[in-house]
From TrEMBL:
Keywords associated with the record: Cell projection, Cilium, Flagellum
Keyword 4Fe-4S included in the entry's annotation: no
Name of protein: Flagellar basal body rod protein FlgB
Pfam families named in the record: Flg_bb_rod
Lineage: Bacteria, Pseudomonadati, Pseudomonadota, Alphaproteobacteria, Hyphomicrobiales
Length: 126
């Protein structure tokens, strides 16, 4: 049985969400640190665009096409309109909204994988 691409996609998104949650937690932890710049992870859509999906050779005569790994780049965002007098660009409300978004996305990811797994198990039984 061939691996299902949905599980790989969900796993990649879970890893990305974990990295994003770490960046958000670091921002919240440094909300009162003078000169600290907000860190953010590149959008997941950009990660998918950088990840090429190739065919896997199942027989010797097939052409091999490799799949590149997606990197999760964390970048510092210096927004001039939200810099505080301490030269800190972290806005706590924005970070809490991002954390809620990560939680909702992770729950959706888990629900989709769970439903797909249930569907696969029913198709194997029947």
């Amino acid at each position: 049985m061939q691996p299902v691409n949905l599980f790989n996609l969900a796993s990649t998104q879970s890893q990305w969400l974990s990295v994003r949650q770490s960046a958000i937690a670091g921002n919240i932890a440094n909300v009162n640190t003078p000169g600290y710049g907000t860190a953010e992870v590149e959008p997941f859509e950009k990660v998918l665009n950088n990840k090429s999906v190739g065919l896997t050779a199942t027989q010797e005569g097939h052409f091999a096409a490799g799949v590149t790994n997606a990197a999760f780049a964390v970048r510092n965002e210096n927004t001039t309109n939200s810099v505080l007098p301490s030269k800190n660009s972290v806005v706590l409300e924005n970070e809490l909204m991002k954390a809620g978004d990560v939680r909702r996305t992770f729950e959706l990811n888990t629900a989709i994988v769970k439903s797909f797994h249930r569907m696969m198990m029913l198709s194997v039984k029947g």
